[in-house]
Amino acid sequence: MKLNVPNLVIDYDRHGNVRYYYRYQKSDGRRKKIRLRGKYDSPEFWRSYNEAKGNPITSHSGTVAWFVTQYLDSTEFKTKVKSKTGIKARRNILNKFCEEHGDKPFKKLTAQNLRNIRDITAGPNLETPHAWNNLKKALSAVFEYAVEHDLVTANPVKAVKKLPTNNPDGHHTWSQEEVERFRDRHPIGSRQRLALEITLNLGQRRSDVVTIGRQHIRDGFVYIRQQKTKAELIVPMTRQLKECLPQAGDLTLLITEWGKPFTAAGFGNFFRKACDDAGLPNCSAHGLRKACATALAEAGATSKEIMSVGGWKNLQDVQIYIEKAEQKRLAERAISKFEREQK
Question: Is the pTM of this model over 0.70?
Answer without folding.
Answer: no
